[in-house]
Amino acid sequence: MKILIIGSGGREHALALACKKSSNSHQIFCIPGNAGTESIAKNVKLEINDFDKIRKFIQESKVDIVIIGPEQPLVDGIVDYLNKFNIKVFGPNQKASQLEGSKIFTKNFCKKYNIPTANFGVFKNLSESNKFLDSCNFPIVIKADGLASGKGVYICKERKDAKVACEEIFSGKFGKAENILFEEFLDGEEMSFFVISDGETFYNFGTAQDHKRVLEGDKGKNTGGMGAYSPSRLEDKKLNNKIINKIINPTLKGLKDIDTKFIGFLYAGLMIINNEPYLIEYNVRMGDPECQTIIPKLKTDLVEVINACINKKLKSINLEWYEDKSLCIVLCSMGYPDEYKKNIEIKNLDKIHLANNEYIFHAGTKKINNKIVSNGGRVLNIVIRSENFKKNREKAISLINKINWDNGFFRKDIGYKVIN
Ligand code: AMP
Ligand code: GLY
Question: Which residues pair with 156 in a beta bridge?
Fold first, then answer.
């Protein structure tokens, strides 16, 4: 089978490796991929927003299935576009992708279907927002409506922070803002909950906890994710059932009401308060680095699962998992998430020996003259799977020490809530 994966992060390397493991005879392409995917797939230099060129490549290379990794092309309608040419794609269409593409769409959707979420208000301009801020309680959460790579969310402890947030959002920092979203601050513990759906059937696809802040102890600026572990320590049968009944089922039903369905990975970002789940946000894809953490736990052949999903036959699949714990540490470029240098060689990678259940997934890397150099803020994902989180973290850190990349830094405390 010929499989095309769109994206260039650690998530896409993890998906590519799982596809390769499915059968060596699968031919895998990545657009654009990274230095890691290059060793198991053919990287194709195309822009992920150039749908025409991607479609031509798919048709000329006779690609059988396409897997979309990141949110932007999904929100921009790549699935609808490719489906028009009878190309088989794993990912939600544009209508369903509004769940991630518009936070206000999702809040209104939650209200309509009684899905537990933070109380909220939508305001149209600075004067309306300021008027509300003059009399509300703090902290308050302020969000830009559209995609903002995790940056359009402000947790405001005081009125003056909230006013700055509104000014930045309405001045267009995250694209043209016609609305702004205010939310009640929810105080609980976060959990990422995943399902895979073919539009008719869905299965749980694991849970995880990621560490979004750059500094140890979950302090400092927000990032794309500094590490993750799976399963979440909060997961149990009772909570899973509540999440399915109160959040996932009404969402999938709501999508049917607007005449669409969800095909792909659905990622619910939850806040758990006194064992009750509240939806913070939806993502219409796997998380990164949650994907790198969860995929190594999947026992069932990923290509079979995805193929069944595309053909609406997920029901025929028996999804099986390793009971192990999995932990991922992200090795970043010094300076991330602010300014950082690119093109710094990572020398020792070829000297690293990986045992079974140990993985190095590339993210911001590329190959120049046979050397692997950094090409982004999050550079490598070191993932270990075993029966014990502590052992995983120690092993991951020892591998990072062996890589000994002098432009890198990482959090040594990933998983502290399940380890200490
Ligand atoms: P998001 O980009 O929506 O995932 O938000 C980024 C982070 O902000 C989340 O992972 C939460 O830690 C936090 N956050 C978002 N909304 C709320 C809320 N209503 N209450 C508390 N924390 C929130
Ligand atoms: N790890 C957070 C995300 O993928 O959005």
Answer: 140
Q: Which segments of 296-413 does DSSP mark as H helices, in order?
A: 302-310, 389-403
pLDDT value at 86 more than 80? yes
Give the right CATH number for 325-419 from 3.10.180.10, 3.40.50.1000, 3.10.350.10, 3.90.600.10: 3.90.600.10
Residues 18, 43 contacting (CB under 8 angstroms): no
DSSP 127-167: HHHHHHHTT--SSEEEEESS--TT-SEEEESSHHHHHHHHH
Q: What is the pLDDT of residue 24?
A: 82
Write down the CATH number for the domain with range 2-92. 3.40.50.20
Rounded-to-integer distance, Cα 193 and Cα 230, Å: 10
What pTM value is reported for the model? 0.96
Counting atoms of ligand 2 from 1, which one is nearest the CA of 225? 1
Taking alpha carbons only, the member of 168, 166, 155 closest to residue 132 is 166
Which one is the CATH code of 189-316: 3.40.50.620, 3.40.50.1010, 3.40.50.300, 3.30.470.20?
Answer: 3.30.470.20
What is the distance in A from the centroid of ligand 2 to the CA of 345? 27
- What's the CATH number for 119-184? 3.30.1490.20
Residues with CB under 6 A from ligand 1: 118, 141, 150, 153, 155, 183, 185-186, 190, 212, 269, 280-281
Q: Two tokens at 65?
A: 């299935």
**Percent of the chain predicted with pLDDT > 70:** 100
Q: Is 197 strand, coil or helix?
A: strand
